[in-house]
Amino acid sequence: MMGSSTERRKGMVVGITGASGSIYGVKLVQSLLQLGFDVHLVITNAGWRVIKEELGWNTSDREAVLQEHFAGFSGQYVYHPIADIGATIASGSYLVDGMIVMPCSMGTLSGIAHGASDNLLTRAADVMLKEGRPLILVPRETPLHAIHLENMLKLAKLGVRIVPAMPAFYFGPQNIDDLVSFLVGKVLDSLRIEHNLFTRWGEQREEQEQ
């Protein structure tokens, strides 16, 4: 008789790079944790720099600042240093439900598109591709030149979801958090994860009629 097995907890890899918009990645991690996902977090060196510049976090003590912003949710986070190529998420035998890079710099996008697994983030993305698991990239760059577009097309043809950081305005956002929540919600939609981060098209009319 086979021994009893425990149900695997839902897990997601989140990468935060040096593109502007680190607030998107932070909101995504917090939303996933709140929904009960375990989050494997990878932040590039440039990503830490942008977090410090844009959010004012004290990144001199990285473990402490991550605890401050990501502890206390129903899900748990695991921080993996960018150079730790021996981390669990570097192997296809380690099961997770998908990966999101938010925001995704053009350098990281290029590395993924060309299979350059030279750090843990690009290696984890390569694992998603070779194992056929969901991979979502949220590029935040403007304007885009032909190489950027060609890399995105190459990845899209491989099944990668490209979700540009383009917030909508039809739901009547009142502040920056509304715009950030909308984009995070669109990413969760791409993964078929239920949430209530924004008001959907048509819901305003239903609320008014009620």
TrEMBL record:
<keyword id="KW-0288">FMN</keyword>
<dbReference type="Pfam" id="PF02441">
    <property type="entry name" value="Flavoprotein"/>
</dbReference>
<keyword id="KW-0637">Prenyltransferase</keyword>
<protein>
    <recommendedName>
        <fullName>Flavin prenyltransferase UbiX</fullName>
        <ecNumber>2.5.1.129</ecNumber>
    </recommendedName>
</protein>
<keyword id="KW-0808">Transferase</keyword>
<feature type="binding site">
    <location>
        <position position="44"/>
    </location>
    <ligand>
        <name>FMN</name>
    </ligand>
</feature>
<keyword id="KW-0285">Flavoprotein</keyword>
<comment type="similarity">
    <text>Belongs to the UbiX/PAD1 family.</text>
</comment>
<comment type="function">
    <text>Flavin prenyltransferase that catalyzes the synthesis of the prenylated FMN cofactor (prenyl-FMN) for 4-hydroxy-3-polyprenylbenzoic acid decarboxylase UbiD. The prenyltransferase is metal-independent and links a dimethylallyl moiety from dimethylallyl monophosphate (DMAP) to the flavin N5 and C6 atoms of FMN.</text>
</comment>
<dbReference type="InterPro" id="IPR004507">
    <property type="entry name" value="UbiX-like"/>
</dbReference>
<feature type="binding site">
    <location>
        <begin position="105"/>
        <end position="108"/>
    </location>
    <ligand>
        <name>FMN</name>
    </ligand>
</feature>
<feature type="binding site">
    <location>
        <position position="140"/>
    </location>
    <ligand>
        <name>FMN</name>
    </ligand>
</feature>
<feature type="binding site">
    <location>
        <position position="186"/>
    </location>
    <ligand>
        <name>dimethylallyl phosphate</name>
    </ligand>
</feature>
<feature type="binding site">
    <location>
        <position position="170"/>
    </location>
    <ligand>
        <name>dimethylallyl phosphate</name>
    </ligand>
</feature>
<feature type="binding site">
    <location>
        <begin position="18"/>
        <end position="20"/>
    </location>
    <ligand>
        <name>FMN</name>
    </ligand>
</feature>
<dbReference type="InterPro" id="IPR036551">
    <property type="entry name" value="Flavin_trans-like"/>
</dbReference>
<feature type="domain" description="Flavoprotein">
    <location>
        <begin position="12"/>
        <end position="191"/>
    </location>
</feature>
<dbReference type="InterPro" id="IPR003382">
    <property type="entry name" value="Flavoprotein"/>
</dbReference>
